[in-house]
Structure formats: C-alpha cells, structure tokens
Amino acid sequence: MVISPVRQHHMVLPEISPDSMEPVREIVRILLRMWRMSDLSFVAELGVTELLTNVWKHTPGGYELLIRETPDGVLVGVTDFDDALPAVKEPTEDAECGRGLFLLTQLTEELHTQPLLTGKQVWFRLGHNLPDGEEWREPLLTVQERSARQHRSPTIRSARMQAVPAVRADLPAWLCLASEVEDLFGPMVDDPQFRAAVERNMERGTALCVHAEREMPGGELAGGLLMSVHPPRYEISWLAVGGAWRGRGIGELLVRTALRDLTAGPGTVEVTTFGPEHPGRDARGFYEHLGFAPVLPLSAGGTRQTYRLRLPDL
C-alpha cells in the first residue's frame, strides 16, 4: 500500500486588505482544482474571505493561512496574534455584524476556534460525510508548527518554503526571474508567446513557484516551473531558479511537488535540457539525481537532450 503525504499550503500574510483577498481566493480555487475538490471551492473561498475579513477588521496584523487536505475533504484555518476569541451566535434580524461566522456554521461540517499560546486559530472543515462512528478532530497546527510560529525562526521559515500554484499577481516576478536566465534560454521577457504560455499555465494550475520572502502572491520568486499535462504523458516545459537561491533545493522542491500534484502513473515525464558542452550542463546531473535518464540522442549541435522519468502505477 502506498501512503500519500498530506498536501497542504501555508501562507504568511504580513498584512491583508480587501484588495489583496482576490489573489488569496484564486490560490484556494487553484489548489482545490489540483486536489480534485473543485466542488468545495465556492464555500472554501467564501469561508476564507470571511475569516480574513474578520482578522483584518478586529486584529492588529500578522496572519497565517493554512489549507490542508483531510481524508474526506479540506481544512482551512486562519491564525492571528490577538487573544480575543470570536463569538459565534445566531444574529438577530437587525444585527449589523456577526452573520458571517454563523453562516459558516451552516455551510461547513465544523467551525472551531483554537486558542494558542499567543493568539488563536479559527478553522473550518469541508468535505463529505465520514463513515458512521468516525470523527475528524485533528488540530490544524501540530505542536511543532505552533512552536515554529511562536518563535518565528528564520531557519524554520526557510525550511518551510514550498512550491505553490502561481497566480496572475506573480506574473511580474515571473518575468523578472526569466530575465535572470535569458543567457541560458534565450530572450523571454519581451516575447509575447512566452508571456502567454506562463499565463495559460497559471490559469490551468500547472505553473508552480517558490516565493523568496513573502508568501503572498506578487513577491519575489526563488524559482518557477511550467508543466505540460497530457496524461499519460507529462513534460516539464520550463524550470528556473533565481541566482541567489541556487544550491538550496529550490529546483528539487519544484520538481517533486509537480510530480506529486500534477501527475498520475502509469506514465512518463519528459524534459529537454542542455547538452554536455552547454553552459547549463549542470542541469543534466540535477535531473539524473531525480531519476530521469537520457532517451534521445543529442540535438543537432549537441546543445539539447531529452530526459525521461517513468511514473509507477500507484
């Protein structure tokens, strides 16, 4: 039996405003589509908007969003650093506030508030009914995650970097990343076809990125990957890591996340990379380390070669 790792997405939001909520909703929408849970997207987006609106209105700032796959659906939680707990009660007809959280109690399987050493986490669960007699009560944050959040260790923050779906707000940073590797790939930033390809992949959820500092969309990118998905054949059509982030596992994180979230065996994943005499030849060893093997002869001039990885039937 193969046990799949729990899929989750974590975002640190130094600040939030009504204008920044649409990119967050877009990430939720893309994640649920990737996880084949699009039927939960409407309520999940509604719930994220309600929780973020509450903390924006009532807490001083500094928030975290965590979306985690569960056995029957998804858990969504928002953490802030204010100890005051929200009151959830049925609003009166003339009430001017308090309707949102009550509505979530009607639309979700569960809505809970979890006090923390500093602050709190409000989370809700969406999904299909579990078998009779089973309950889902796992807190959204583990003890280790709570400790890391409390201490704000830069080392822990770096270790928690993750590859996530890129959204439209990431396009300027994506083009900036592309400008760093034009010496290897050729002109891209001013190529409308490249820009259109990136935008198409963002819409499909097949553009992955790693944010360098801020985990909000629009920040600097440490790396990015585009994946062509035509089961049972997949292709890594573009992969780049920023110069300041090379040698830190960003490329491997992107590829392994793409293999986990965007592919299904049996099948093959191909990538066309550089020849042994090309300045970018180190990419050959990178793909071989991940299990890819050369399958086609070098192209004319020896500048390119195709590698392939076979996906097992899971």
Span between termini: 9 Å
How does the overall form come out from the CA principal axes? elongated
* Sequence of secondary-structure elements: EHHEEHEEHHEHHHEEEHEHEE
Helical coverage, percent range: 25-40%
Low-confidence stretches: 1-5, 130-159
In the sheet with the most strands, the strands line up as 6-7-8-9-10-12-11
Task: List the topology elements.
Layout (H helix, E strand, L loop, with lengths): L7 E6 L7 H14 L6 H18 L4 E8 L2 E8 L18 H9 L2 E6 L4 E8 L15 H9 L2 H6 L4 E2 L5 H10 L1 H4 L6 H13 L2 E5 L9 E10 L2 E9 L8 H13 L4 E8 L7 H8 L3 E2 L9 E8 L3
Parallel strand pairs: 9-10
Antiparallel strand pairs: 1-2, 2-3, 3-5, 4-5, 6-7, 7-8, 8-9, 10-12, 11-12
Write a concise keyword list for the protein shown above.
alpha+beta, Heat Shock Protein 90, disordered N terminus, single chain, 12 strands, 10 helices, 5-stranded antiparallel β-sheet, Aminopeptidase, 314 residues, elongated, 7-stranded mixed β-sheet
In short:
This protein is an alpha+beta fold. The protein has helices at about 20-35, 40-60, 100-105, 145-150, 155-160, 170-180, 180-185, 190-205, 250-260, 280-290, and strands at about 10-15, 65-70, 75-80, 110-115, 120-125, 165, 205-210, 220-230, 235-240, 265-275, 295, 305-310.
What does this structure look like?
The protein is of the alpha+beta class and 314 residues long. It folds into 2 domains: 8-159, Histidine kinase-like ATPase, C-terminal domain (Heat Shock Protein 90); 164-311, Gcn5-related N-acetyltransferase (GNAT) (Aminopeptidase), CATH 3.40.630.30. It is 33% helix and 25% strand. It is built from 10 helices and 12 strands. It is elongated, with a radius of gyration of 21 Å. The termini are close together.
